[in-house]
Amino acid sequence: MGRVKPGRRGKLFVVFLMGAVQAGSSSLCAPVSENETALSPSYQFTADSWTMEEGLPANAVLALAPARDGYLWVGGLNGLVRFDGVRFVHFHTWDGLTSLQIGHLLEDRAGRLWIGTEDAGVIMREGGVFHAFGRTNGLGGERVRALAEDAEGRIWVAHEAGVARWDGGRFVDMALPQPKNWVAGCTSVICESNSVWAVRNDWVLLERRDGRWRSGPQLPPKSGFRFEQIFRTRDGALWSQLSPFGLARLTAKQWRIFGAESGLPKSYINCVLDQGESGLLCGTFEQGLFLFRDERASPAGMNEPPEMDGVLSLQRDNLGNLWVGTRSKGLLRLRNARVQVVPGSERARIARMAFDTRGRLWISSGQELWFEQQGRLVTVAPPAAAQKFPVIMLKPCAAGGVWLSVAGSGLWQYDPDRNDRPVHKYKTEEGDSEPLVLANDRASGLWFATVSGTVGHLTEEGTNIFRPFERAARKRIGGLTACPSGGVWVQVEGTGFLRLDEQGQVQEQIGAREGLAVNAIRCWLDDGEGGVWIGTPMGLLWWRNSRLLVFDSRHGLPGEAISNLVEDRSGHLWCAANNRLFRLTKRELADFAASKTQVVHPLVIGRSDGLKPNPFASGFYSPAIRGPNGRLFVPRIHDVVSFDPAEFEQPAPAPRVIIEEALADGRQLELPNSMDTPLRIQPRTGEFLLRYTALQCAAPETLRFRYRLEGLDEPWTEAVDQRAASFRRLPPGTYHFRVTASASGGAWAEPGASLAFIILPAWYQTPWFRVLAELVVVGGAAGFYWRRISRLEAQRTAQQNFSRRLIQSQEQERKRIAGELHDSLGQNLLVIKNRADIALKASTSSAPEQFNEISRVAAQALAEVREISQNLRPYQLDRLGFTRAVSGLIKQVSASSALKIAAEIAPLDRVFPPEAEINLYRIVQEGLNNILKHSGATEARITLQQDGARVRLVIQDNGRGFDFPAATQNPARASGMGLDGIAERVRILGGKLDLQSRPGSGTQMKIELPLRAGPTPDT
User: 471 in helix, strand or coil?
Assistant: First the structure.
């Protein structure tokens, strides 16, 4: 058998098993002679592996159990895991497991998982809960060696002390016959419709029938072999794995042993998988997989030499996947490869291929040429006098054989049934070393062209050579593709495509004006309807009805760098892009062209189908082809892959989608048993995470998911290959989560999986709290409004009172000034007038006396004028400055009264603006007036100091004091004491007033003013 390269990780088993897929009419393999290669069927499987790097607990896999719901249970010496094809979910002792040493797994017909451990008896998982059974539950031993289910659904357990049967509540010891001086343990047990077979510790085979154990047919005593695990095959035969190696089959109550003479290795067979007519697949402890069929064994799988590995467990799931548990290479999945590498094609790197009219495969590497003949691949000898035969392009010839484009020599024809060597048909111009480009027309002719611009059409009637058509200088012809109408598309470098009719006349052009990136063409293919498909690094282009359509990742393409194109029998388009291969259907392409849809859903071929990552070759000179039987051949850089498109016609079944876990802020929640019961999530949950998966899928890596959260986001969210949805800070409410999946571009699973859940509100998110909060807000706003209105009203009243008192004060001041002018200054002026009249009329002797009186009265009037002006504005502020003016005021008051005044006046000149100085001066003046008029004090103290950024004024006396609250409530009294004026001046200066007084305790007035005090903005 051949050999397949390893899977994803490390060196895997190289498995070639049943199910040959023949490449074309046959397949290629290793060389037989110098010019021949033998043809033989190619048996290929694709292998994928998972090890500890991907989450497996250990690389030694002891037990496997495919579940009905699509999961795979995996057991080993490091625990139990559940696998969905992508993610491993671990189960631990805190989940209910009493042991992590798992040796055997069995799912019964009721869907319960039975777990046989190496040191803790049996564990059953039912409804997501683990139940442990040991000696206290009737199980006689702790080390389980085998599990089996009988026709009535009862579980049988072989252990180191015997056999026990589960009867629904506990285990019952089935009492094996006791040998002398021997513990009657059991190594194997199987159940049939009316009997049970077991192998005792002393390698004796026993059969239980009608409630009794009887000795069964034994191996020949001198054979050197012993019974190990026994099993029954589909054809009803009883078999046994033997120790130290080999198999045995019971025929007519006699055991026939198959050992080394039958091709089986001398290695213990750990497990056997019945393949029906395909034979038995045997997993050996040291030498990998063997296929035993027709009483002969051959290696079915092996590691790449010199490494060898063992197989510990084998299972096949309901989708045909073969699961292999190995000793050190982890878990393997083997599948029939629908995409195969053509054997021997690595010799023809970047291969040119063709099938002739007789169905023979032709292949060229650019240096050599081969064709298939009578089961062998024959090397074509170069023409006479030629050492090499660099065939650059092959096309089938209607008359038989192929057309060959050879670099430097033109067009050749070769049919091995008629000629010994290729026949020269058209010679290129002298010195032209470039090969011809070729294209078969729709009849039986051939289009060809030289890179310099000459186009020819070869038919049965002859060869027509057309003159070079107009094109830019040095723009070479890159390729040809025939049109259904009979003409040909010509690809010109740097220009695009020209369509010529059968007379060589240009009928249509696709270039930069039409939106074509003329320097980025990798491949092309006519669409059979007069248009052409064009592959570029930026996506797929379709020239259709004089319109250029573009397909790229925005429209669903999994790859944009299109390298090769080929059409299958159904008209579907297959695209090779980098190392990916995908199919576009005719229906979706037509819908896109008619603007019925903006997205296509390609079928992607992946690893599960046998396509390993390798870059595809450009179709410029190595176009993909379709064989006579419909198989497609697509060249890559290092080899050629082949597949039958019909195997992909049946859409992949929609997978079963389930929601596995729900986590709120990292805490796992118990999912409800019924979809009608919503999951309740506590208030103030930060992150809500849902894990989902899809089961019963043959190729999990091709799964695509989408989900939506009804109640928040109605459109579907494309999750691609992500298997979790996270939502943060969801508001309280009821939601419905839906998730669906699609496999290999197939239909979406409907209805998918769903989960209803409720985010409970916090106490402050409840309706009653919102109503109460609204009432509080409304009440607060109303209270604030009322308080604001009341404050404004009080301020307006105070302002009105102050304005009234200010007007009254102004009127009183005017009255006082008027009285002073009338009573003093007016009287003095009248006296001066009268004295002057008397002096004029008096005798000369009395005139001096009258003028002396006039001088005295005038001086008195002048003093009164100065006093009045002093009261209006102290001139000392302007002449002497603020500090000396205040000091002078204090000295004047002290000198004119019996009041003793102690003063501490700091230099404060130019500290305040002029308008602030007069206000501060008046405050001091009014304070002294209050002491003189109302306090009856004998002593007073005035302090005016600067303290940092503030000025502090303190006026205190030892007078009789007064009731300050009563004075503030009596506007007439407050006005009489000048308190309103002082307070208003302090407010204008932006300061603070603190007045303290009690009857009999004197009065103290403290005022703090900010530096650079001035009028406030509202003054």
Answer: coil
Per-residue pLDDT tens over the stretch 143-192? 999 999 999 999 999 999 999 999 888 899 998 988 777 778 999 999 99
End-to-end CA distance of the chain: 107
Looking at the DSSP assignment, which residues form a beta bridge with residue 301? 15, 289
The span from the CA of 543 to the CA of 550, in Å, is 9
Dihedral, 200, 206, 209, 213 alpha carbons, nearest 10? -60
CA quadruple 90, 95, 98, 99: dihedral, nearest 10: 10
What's the CA gap between 909 and 902, in Å, rounded?
A: 21
DSSP 3-state of 11:
coil
10: left (phi over 0), alpha (psi -120 to 50) or beta: left
Q: Are strands 939-947 and 900-905 parallel, antiparallel or unpaired?
A: parallel
Angle between helices 826-841 and 847-872 (to 10 degrees): 160
| Structure tokens, 81 | 């895991």
Please determine, for residue 640, whether its predicted confidence score (pLDDT) is greater than 80. Answer: yes
| Residues linked to residue 292 through DSSP beta bridges, in sequence order | 280, 297
Question: Where does residue 853 rank: exposed (0-12), middle (13-18), buried (19+ CB within 10 A)?
Answer: middle
pLDDT of residue 16: 25
Coil/strand/helix, residue 856: helix
Considering only CA atoms, which of 134, 137, 144 is closest in space to residue 186? 144
Identify the helix (H) or strand (E) that includes residue 840. helix 826-841
Buried residues in 304-339 as b, exposed as e (16+ CB within 10 A): eeeeebbbbbbbbbeeebbbbbbbebbbbbbbbbbb
Strand order in the sheet with 402-406: 391-396, 402-406, 410-414, 423-426
- What is the C-alpha separation between 310 and 252, in angstroms, rounded? 33
Residues 540 and 204: their CA atoms lie apart, in Å, by 70
- Three-class HEC string of 357-406: CCCCEEEECCCCEEEEECCEEEECCCCCCCCCCCEEEEEECCCCCEEEEE
Pairing of strands 939-947, 950-957: antiparallel
The rounded distance, in Å, linking the Cα atoms of 1019 and 714 is 61
Burial class of residue 779 (count of CB atoms within 10 Å of its CB; 0-12, 13-18, 19+): exposed
d(C-alpha 766, C-alpha 822), whole Å: 81
The structure tokens listed for 560 are 């944009």
Residue 518 pLDDT > 90: no
Query: What DSSP line would sit under 622-633, residue for residue?
Result: S--EE-TTS-EE
SS3 of 39, please? strand
Asked if 705 and 697 touch (Cβ cutoff 8 Å), the reply is no
Cα separations in angstroms, 474 against 85, 471, 495, 586: 55, 9, 11, 38
Residues 66-95: tens digit of each pLDDT:
998 889 999 998 999 999 888 899 999 999
Q: How far is residue 487's CA from residue 479's CA, in Å, rounded to a whole number?
A: 14
Angstrom CA distances, 95 to 54, 99, 495, 664, stand at 22, 11, 69, 19
Q: Which of 257-271, 454-468, 515-529, 815-829 has the lowest mean pLDDT?
A: 815-829
Region 104-111: mean pLDDT is 94
| Residue carrying structure tokens 């002449």 | 879
Count of Cβ atoms closer than 10 Å to residue 915 Cβ: 12
Q: Which strands form 539-544's sheet, in the order they lie side by side? A: 523-526, 532-536, 539-544, 547-551
The SS3 assignment for 308 reads coil
Residue 36 binned pLDDT confidence (cut-offs 50, 70, 90): very low
**CB 311, CB 270: distance < 8 Å:** yes
Secondary structure letter of residue 512 according to DSSP? G
pLDDT attached to residue 31: 33
The pTM of the full predicted model, rounded to 2 decimals, is: 0.64
3-state class of 829 per DSSP? Answer: helix
